[in-house]
Amino acid sequence: MDRFNAMRVFTRIVELGGFAKAADSLQLPRASVTILIKQLEAHLGVQLLQRTTRQISLTLDGAAYYPRCVRLLADLEETEAVFSAARQNPKGLLRVDMPAGVGRLIVIPALPQFTARYPLIELEIGLNDRPVDLIREGVDCVLRGGSTLDDSLVARPLCMLDQVTCASPQYLQRRGTPQCLEDLEGHQMVEYFSNSTGKRYGLEFIADAQLRLIDLPKHVSVNSADGYLAACEAGYGLVQTPYYHVAQQLKEGRLVEVLREMPPPAMPLTALYPPHRQLSRRVRVFVDWMVDLCAQSTNGFFRQDSGN
Predict the structure, then answer these.
(1) CA 13 to chain CA mean position, Å
(2) What is the CB neighbour count within 10 angstroms for residue 63?
(3) Is residue 308 part of a domain?
(4) Which of 22, 53, 82 lies at the terminal end of a domain, its last residue?
(5) Any idea where the HTH lysR-type domain is (predicted)?
(6) N or C, fewer C-beta in 10 Å, the chain?
(7) Residue 187 — φ and ψ, nearest 5°?
(8) Which among 251, 298, 276, 286 is positioned nearest to 106, based on CA atoms?
(9) Is the dihedral of CA 120, 126, 127, 133 positive or negative?
(10) Which residues span the domain enclosing 47?
(11) Buried b (16+ CB within 10 A) or exposed e, 141-153
(12) For residues 270 and 149, is the Cβ–Cβ distance under 8 A?
């Protein structure tokens, strides 16, 4: 039995949730995948996977074995890369996760630059706003906005995102356009909340060099960035969001910026990856490319008159 190959099969089954999907991903016969797992379990003397007709789940031993496999396979891959042409021309699968708006509006439109430079890297991009367990889900790198970061991960700051306060024209016709924070009395907001932490977000303004936190009444709370803006466009109140996410709506007049002289604090955008991926050539070239992308004045992250 090729133990490293068996470990690759095992980790792929865990990540994809099934023997058939793992076999297709690795381009192996499905029978070979089943045999390798049986041989691996026999070699270890434990059951790693609980198999039923409907689902695959990890046993306690499997849950303990999985992160060790991920680390060992990553170390093997990077050790081989040091002594191969892959150091100059990295290749293989790179799994990256990022907020849907960052991916859809910024990264993917610019991605041809990256793939032209590194044609042997295959990208698998997850687009969502939920926290990702990098080890459990086999993700190499994540991009995240905000300051709540995982201390167990390596963090590479990318940029500070301009944020704006806005509302729909119909809402402002009904409630009036606020010119100062005192004018917010009688207004309402769309509330954003996190499913994972339960945290709920009010409005933040920088006025007279001080941070002002303001909670307004709300009729709608949502837990996704796209839903947050959809509720704003529907007239449910004020929202605060990175500029890139509403640039098109502001340009088309579907949303209107308010209280521009008292903007929300800028939001940090950070690349995060596990310590065992720190020497990964694929991760390094992707993060370096993101740093370059964020440094470009026309990247779409910043408003053109912001001074960034």
Answers:
(1) 23
(2) 13
(3) no
(4) 82
(5) 1-59
(6) N
(7) -95, 170
(8) 298
(9) negative
(10) 3-82
(11) bbbbbeeeeeeeb
(12) yes
Q: Which residue has the tokens 């596990």?
A: 274
* Of 109, 124, 115, nearest in space to 90 by CA: 115
Are residue 18 and residue 75 in the same domain, yes or no?
A: yes
Closest residue by Cα to residue 226 from 203, 257, 192: 192
Q: Which residues pair with 124 in a beta bridge?
A: 95
C-beta of residue 236 within 8 angstroms of C-beta of residue 190: yes
Q: Is residue 254 part of a domain?
A: yes
The full DSSP string for 171-212 is HHHHH---SSGGGGTT--BPEEE-TTT--EE-EEEEETTEEE
Residue given tokens 């303001």 in the structure block: 214
Residues 169 and 253 in one domain: yes
Number of domains into which the chain is organized: 3
Residues 169, 197, single domain; the answer is yes
Strand 141-145 and strand 121-127: the pairing is unpaired
Coil, helix or strand at residue 215: coil
Phi-psi region at 69: left, alpha or beta (left = phi > 0; alpha = psi -120 to 50): alpha
Region of residue 31 (phi > 0: left; psi between -120 and 50: alpha; otherwise: beta): alpha
Give yes or no: residues 197 and 247 share one domain.
yes
Same domain, 60 and 118: no
